[in-house]
Amino acid sequence: MSGTPAAGGTQRIHWGHSALSAEFATAPDGSLRIVGLGPRGTAAAELRRATPVVEVLALGHGSGWSGRRSIETAVGARLRLRGHTRERDGDWHVLRLDLHDAVSGITAVLRLSSPEGLPVVRAGTEIRNEGQEPVTLLAVSSFALGGLPAPGELELHWADNDWLAECRWRSAPLRDHLPDLNRGVHEHDSRGHFALGSRGSWSTDGHLPMGALTERTGGRCWLWQVESPCGWAWETGEREGGTYLALHGPTDTEHQWRERLSPGQSFRTQPAAVAMSEEGFDGALGALTGYRRRVRRPHPDHRALPVIFNDYMNTLSGDPTTGKLLPLVDAAALAGAEYFVIDSGWYDDDAAGWWDSVGAWQPAASRFPGPRGIHEVLDRIRHHGMVPGLWLEPEVVGVRSPLAERLPDEAFFRRDGVRIREHGRHQLDLRHPAAASHLDETVDRLVGAWGVGYLKLDYNISVPPGTDGGGAESPGAGLLGHARAYLDWLNAVLDRYPGLVIENCASGGMRMDGALLGVAQLQSTSDQQDHLRYPPIAAAAPTAVPPEQGAVWAYVQPEFGDEENAFILAGALLGRVHLSGRLDRMSPAQLGRVREAVGVYRSIRQDLPDAVPFWPLGLPAWTDPWTALGLRAGRASYLTVWRREGGGPDAVLPLPHLRGRAAGVEVLFPAGSAGGAAWSAALGELAVTLPRPGTALLLRLTT
Q1: Which CATH superfamily does the domain covering 301-524 fall into?
Q2: What pLDDT score does 480 carry?
């Protein structure tokens, strides 16, 4: 925990705690670099392979090596350490590094924090203009780390993330993307890299803001996430024979973001986090899961985990009425649901359809006739002891909505003086008081006056690259400003209504980022309506969101057979159960199967908030015939195992954390399954049998 000069004038700073060790050193050129970061005992890297701790691309300063890489910026190379401070904030250890560039007048304060007992570091940079002239920022790193093993020693992991096909992890040798150019001959590093980033206001449309590097022959893993509600970019490349990692929020090149700072003004980046483990990807993901739980807003829902019924998926599909809802409410109560959410369409009183007329969020009299209107349904929900919920899409206003004319142009996204129109909607800018006031009035009516206890907040358009605020800012900066204002608005809503539960949704998982997951209690994992295509999404979702926050659909149907409905239900039991389907048309036996699943979930849900995920068969590919998700919770290890078409009736699941230990195996769900499992302590393997495809088991192993 010291800062000491070393031979030759090199200054070294040591920082960390029981599970983390970090070492910084000044290079011969004067720049400060991270030479060691990892679990306790991590060896320091060669100083020449390390990178400056902060990279800043500024207009008029540029970089020292042209190409696609974001490192080796001129300002980053000139930043010099002025001082550093350490502090404790509860369980968090905090280090601040104060760096200054005398040429540009830019000061960068890199803030590193880490929770005691977890090998995870969170990083963010604040830039201040201490010069005499304005400075325009084009990119600022949240975190930069060099000195990792050579590309030939590493495997790269990243996650594609598309509508209906979320959380699809892939891997390849890093050297496949970074060819060996023979640096010794050319005396320069490559100009290339491997990079991913976002596009538009859907932060996870295309890719998750995550990635990992693992040793190909060892156990070390570096796993990261960028916690941005809009623009982000990460890259990895080769430097001095080693590997570097650079994490950014929005940038000029990728997101049309730039920030002009007058003297005295400042800008802070979005945070990024890196988890490190000697136990591979699963070990690092376990640490990152613990970090995510520590960094999010506290809420009782994170431990209560009530069962939710939502009327949309494969059920009413945006066409709710009193007549359709009341039987569903009664059936959902019988099935054991604790929340009942009326999804989209409850406000639709427009003969031309609601898509491009939304915005007022008033109940449709034609859908809810009678003196009580929608309150007849809300009262029925409460009569059964359930909490009522409603769907909203707060950030949009349909182009045909009267609100589009009533609110000023400044309350919407604009570019070149033109209000942006996307898929029949305008986008609100939550920085404008009129936009925020409209949403506050809506929430105060629904939650404060009506007693709604759950809001599903959806977002079904993406607006690239953002808003220029009438020409006063870059589009990317405008988008970031709105996104931060939206987070502030969400926090303010929860401050007013601390018991309210908020689900984050954007056409499923198109905004599954760490910034929003730090505020919202639940995250929609997908809009996928085919239950045979849902297993790889449900199994991989805990890579992006802690299990107790990941909403997984269980849309059982009366026309399905018992095994089919059991397959659907089993897939949700290690996440947040989102029941749907025509429960009101089910036979007593079918409804009994649903009640069985809900009962099992209630019996195990107390273990989920502290459980860490693992994948005995590896992260799933889209068409794998066998898929498995595990959760470790104290002496219990839970496993959901799915079998789809392809492959045989038997699978072997390696469970190295239980090797050599006696363990009891239980089939928790479904009762009476033709499948089964047998544990071999000597081999550390679980043999699972599912005679037919389209079947699944929830298992528990107890030591």
Answers
A1: Aldolase class I (3.20.20.70)
A2: 98
- R_g of the chain, CA atoms, integer Å: 26
Domain with CATH 2.60.40.1170 in the chain: 614-702
The confidence band for 6, taking pLDDT boundaries of 50, 70 and 90, is: very low
Q: Which of the four pLDDT bands, split at 50, 70 and 90, describes residue 3?
A: low
Written as one string, the DSSP assignment of 227-291 is: --SS--EEEEEEETTEEEEEEES--HHHH---EEE-TT-EEEPPPEEEEEESSHHHHHHHHHHHH
Give the C-alpha separation, 547 to 613, whole Å.
Answer: 8
**Residues of each domain in the chain carrying CATH 2.70.98.60:** 3-295
- Compute the C-alpha angle 500/553/290, nearest 5°: 60
What is the rounded CA–CA span in Å between residue 223 and residue 281? 7
Strands in 68-220 per DSSP E = 80-89, 92-100, 106-115, 120-129, 135-148, 154-162, 165-173, 194-197, 206-207, 210-215
Residue type for 203, please? S
Q: What one-character DSSP code corresponds to residue 593?
A: H
- Tokens for 492? 């303010």
**DSSP, res 448:** I
Residues in the chain: 703
Residue 340 CA: distances (Å) to CA of 11, 236, 348, 430, 616? 60, 45, 19, 29, 34
SS3 462: coil
| Alpha carbon 530 to chain centroid, angstroms | 23
In eight-state DSSP terms, residue 42 is P
pLDDT tens-digit series, residues 489-528: 999 999 999 999 999 999 999 999 999 999 999 999 999 9
Quote the distance between the C-alpha of residue 540 and its chain's center. 12
- In the chain, CATH 3.20.20.70 covers 301-524
Strands of 521-635 (E only): list them: 522-524, 550-555, 576-580, 612-614, 626-633
Q: Please, which residues have CB within 8 angstroms of residue 32's CB and are 6 or more apart in sequence?
A: 24, 25, 26, 52, 53, 79, 80, 81, 97, 99
CATH class label, 614-702: mainly beta
How many whole angstroms separate alpha carbon 287 and alpha carbon 276?
8
Residues 6+ apart with CB under 8 A from 184: none
Within 8 A by CB and 6+ apart from 251, the residues are 57, 70, 138, 139, 197, 231, 233, 257, 476
Contact 489, 432 (CB under 8 A): no
Assessment of whether the complete model's pTM goes beyond 0.90: yes
CATH (one of 3.40.605.10, 2.70.98.60, 2.40.240.10, 3.40.50.2300) for 3-295: 2.70.98.60
Helix (H, G, I), strand (E, B) or coil at 478: helix
**Residues 6+ positions from 366 with CB-CB distance below 8 Å:** 349
426: region left, alpha or beta (phi > 0 left; psi from -120 to 50 alpha): beta
**Number of DSSP helices (H) and strands (E) in the chain, helices first:** 15, 41
CA dist., res. 368 & res. 347, Å (int): 10
Considering only CA atoms, which of 602, 598, 651 is closest in space to residue 624?
651
The four Cα atoms 59, 60, 66, 69 give a dihedral, to 10 degrees, of -30
CA 393 to chain centre: 19
Summarize pLDDT for 111-144 with one digit per residue, the tens: 999 999 999 999 999 999 999 999 999 999 999 9
Determine how many CB atoms are found less than 10 A away from the CB of residue 403: 18
Residue 465 preceded by cis peptide, ω within 30: yes
CB of 574 closer than 8 Å to CB of 698: yes
Which position has the token pair 């009341």? 326
